[in-house]
Amino acid sequence: MKEDILKVLLSEEEIAAKVSEIGAKISRDYHDKNLLLVSVLKGSVVFMADLMRAIDVNAAIDFMSVSSYGSGTKTSGEVKIIKDLDRSLEGVDLLLVEDILDSGKTLHYLRDMLSKRGPKSIRIATLLDKPARREADIKPDYVCFEVPDEFVVGYGLDYAEKYRNLPYVGILKPSVYE
Ligand SMILES: O=P(O)(O)OC[C@H]1O[C@H](OP(=O)(O)OP(=O)(O)O)[C@H](O)[C@@H]1O
Ligand code: HPA
Ligand SMILES: [Mg+2]
């Protein structure tokens, strides 16, 4: 697994420090709100697990599973809903939790769809932002790290369902997918 990684971009320690910082900021912003954290599966599962424990105000959680990359490194552009939310969004302050904002198509689609369900507010928290690749008009509210235009894996992010369990974020060797 490790032999497929060109370079470690973000170490476990760097990620942990930044996630605590962002968690504290979210806690300050949401202390008087009705916070619902929605993790967009599967990529955001590791970030969600760490971020929710860095938040010290009341927060409910839910999960939604979508997929647009299939087993490749380019978005299909089509967002498939694999699992919807279990609960209503009426009156909640929704915070969408993502691992990466790349073309932006996934979050653009989700934000549009979920905004029709009556939440009081919607914001986006992402571990990684890859602004060089943006195609949809969407900006995150909380970002842990900006990353270069490279395919990254680890800490939840996959290539063909592999590497999600790496504890750091690394650049995948192009020879793996070319
Ligand atoms: O900004 P975009 O170009 O839309 O890309 C970002 C999305 O793509 C990845 O999900 P993927 O479809 O690979 O599903 P996964 O989370 O199960 O890996 C990633 O986890 C984000 O959800
Ligand atoms: O760089 C990436 N790595 C893994 N999954 C992704 N989904 C969008 N961009 C990426
Ligand atoms: Mg993926």
UniProtKB/TrEMBL annotation:
Q: Record's CDD domains?
A: PRTases_typeI
**Enzyme Commission (EC) number:** 2.4.2.8
Q: Which UniProt keywords apply?
A: Cytoplasm, Glycosyltransferase, Magnesium, Metal-binding, Nucleotide-binding, Purine salvage, Transferase
Q: What is its main location?
A: cytoplasm
Which cofactors?
A: Mg(2+)
Q: Which Pfam families match?
A: Pribosyltran
Annotated compartments: Cytoplasm
Catalysed reactions, semicolon-separated: IMP + diphosphate = hypoxanthine + 5-phospho-alpha-D-ribose 1-diphosphate; GMP + diphosphate = guanine + 5-phospho-alpha-D-ribose 1-diphosphate
All copies of domain Phosphoribosyltransferase, residue ranges: 11-159
GO biological process terms, alphabetically, are: GMP salvage; guanine salvage; hypoxanthine metabolic process; IMP salvage; purine ribonucleoside salvage
Return one GO MF term.
Answer: guanine phosphoribosyltransferase activity
Pathway assignment reads:
Purine metabolism; IMP biosynthesis via salvage pathway; IMP from hypoxanthine: step 1/1; Purine metabolism; GMP biosynthesis via salvage pathway; GMP from guanine: step 1/1
Q: Where is the signal peptide?
A: none
Top EC group: transferase
GO CC annotation terms, alphabetical = cytosol
Q: What is the role of this chain? A: Purine salvage pathway enzyme that catalyzes the transfer of the ribosyl-5-phosphate group from 5-phospho-alpha-D-ribose 1-diphosphate (PRPP) to the N9 position of the 6-oxopurines hypoxanthine and guanine to form the corresponding ribonucleotides IMP (inosine 5'-monophosphate) and GMP (guanosine 5'-monophosphate), with the release of PPi.
The text of the family note is: Belongs to the purine/pyrimidine phosphoribosyltransferase family.
Q: What name appears for this protein in its UniProt entry? A: Hypoxanthine phosphoribosyltransferase
